[in-house]
Amino acid sequence: TVCMLILYDCILPNVFVFSGENYKTEGYVVTPNTMNLLKQHLELTGGQVRTRFPPEPNGILHIGHAKAINFNFGYAKANNGICFLRYDDTNPEKEEEKYFTAIKDMVEWLGYKPYAITHASDHFQLLYELAVDLIRRGHAYVCHQRGEELKGHNVPPSPWRDRPVEESLVLFERMKKGMCAEGEATLRMKLVMEDGKLDPVAYRIKYTPHHRTGDTWCMYPTYDYTHCLCDSIEHITHSLCTKEFQARRSSYFWLCNALDVYCPVQWEYGRLNLTYTVVSKRKIIKLVETGAVRDWDDPRLFTLTALRRRGFPPQAINNFCARVGVTVAQTTMEPHLLEACVREVLNDTAPRVMAVLEPLKVTITNLPADVHIPDFPADETKGSHVVPFSKTIFIEQSDFREAMEKGYKRLTPDQPVGLRHAGYIISLQRVIKDGRGKVVELEVTCSSSDSAEKPKAFIHWVSQPLQCEVRLYERKYCSFLYYTCDPAEVPGGFLSDLSPNSLQLVESALVDRSVSEAKVFDKFQFERVGYFSVDPDSTAEKLVFNRTVTLKEDPGKI
């Protein structure tokens, strides 16, 4: 967090105003009551910095939200302030309880604790009363234009814009009591937004029960109406939002001033995008519905639940957000930059174990003793575990060749190889094949590496291992799911760009028995293979591992 705020100060000098100095913000409209409202705000907050993270509970948070979480919570923390988690739950048609739970879990997983968890629905009654006041002040009216007429920016002027205040009040009350059909009427505000949109909607009718208020309401406020007023009610000092909301800054200030309530500061920053993926909730739902991915937490996605399942440490995501920094311009990054941050964290935190994904049986004719293997070879003081060294061990099929090849340094009939951590060198004595000529077993002898010539390579191995399932998320270029840098721009649509080989299942991999007590999300480095995390599909009978990242950057990336 400290690194992030240093970066903010370097990139965005003089952007932020102090609490109580809202009137100094560009575009802020000062009214005769502004200074009095700011004074009351300072008396209530004591000049404390207050931010909020306000997600819509209609999907799972993604990597772009991680930047918003770090920014909102980080800025408050660095200034000894507080940050609210506020659910923007104004559209009951798309909201589900699992999204509320997942949002809270992901905020806390990233290491942040909200000062309070609030909901826009907490303020439905007050928001309604303020809407009535807005009508009385002559700043809002009930309109009967249909939804299709209100789409886009070239909306025709409403013929009901100048209807009498009393008439709008009566109609608004009818909307509240359920006496109007869906789409029959809306409440609109009398203003022109910065992008030219005329008279945005403040309330619309939806006969959908709300998860918190039930059937109490049949009309719900919109984002344009709700957001700034909830900020005002909660005495937020800095409303931090992404660049696309810049077109709503004037309406943000206008509505607070039109109702003569405290007006926070709004400041916009560039959102974070990743290439070779999609984070749109609508598109992810389509991927789930078509079976292209299993669910929102499929490790091939870049939702936060998916990244957690794949094994990304929260610290690595926070470090990535810090390196990206905060600028006004939109930032588009490649996934391998995020993976580099993951490797840095896992290199210091993921214990080393040995696993074989494509096992080849090796029988040792002269049997040595068990082996102590350090959890972190670079720092053996951080512990070790014992691996049995039995007559039968298993190595990777790719670590043996019947015929010597130029540059090949592993086991061949004429080339011995070292066993990693064991202190032994094995030499081939006999190759055993099945009826189809496939190599199924090797017979070898072993000798101490102290008394023999140093081998050209040391390979990993397992003995008396556990069978496990390993899920490899393979990529074409930079993506785990897509071929193209921007799948949304593919002529055939983002679903036509899916990689058919994005997931490879290894159902009979073998892993060091020392991981037998591993829990979901525990992380390990499988030596010479990659970093892996225990998947929630694991059972007492069989562990399932997701490959988080390879040991080195993917050489196939663009």
UniProtKB/TrEMBL annotation:
Gene3D superfamilies, A to Z: HUPs, Ribosomal Protein L25, Chain P
EC class of the enzyme, as a word: ligase
GO molecular function: ATP binding; glutamine-tRNA ligase activity
Glutamyl/glutaminyl-tRNA synthetase class Ib catalytic domain: residues covered: 48-347
EC number, as in UniProt: 6.1.1.18
SUPFAM superfamilies: Nucleotidylyl transferase, Ribosomal protein L25-like
Glutamyl/glutaminyl-tRNA synthetase class Ib anti-codon binding domain residues: 350-446
Catalyzed reactions: tRNA(Gln) + L-glutamine + ATP = L-glutaminyl-tRNA(Gln) + AMP + diphosphate
Entry-linked PROSITE patterns: AA_TRNA_LIGASE_I
GO cellular component entries: aminoacyl-tRNA synthetase multienzyme complex; cytosol
The protein, known as: glutamine--tRNA ligase
BP GO terms, sorted: glutaminyl-tRNA aminoacylation
CDD domains per the UniProt record, alphabetical: GlnRS_core (cd00807)
Pfam families linked to this entry: tRNA-synt_1c, tRNA-synt_1c_C, tRNA-synt_1c_C2
Keywords recorded for this protein, A-Z: Aminoacyl-tRNA synthetase, ATP-binding, Ligase, Nucleotide-binding, Protein biosynthesis
Keyword Protein transport part of the UniProt annotation: no
Domain tRNA synthetases class I (E and Q) anti-codon binding: 458-535
Protein origin, superkingdom: Eukaryota
Gene that encodes the chain: QARS1
Family: Belongs to the class-I aminoacyl-tRNA synthetase family.
Signal peptide (UniProt feature, chain positions): none
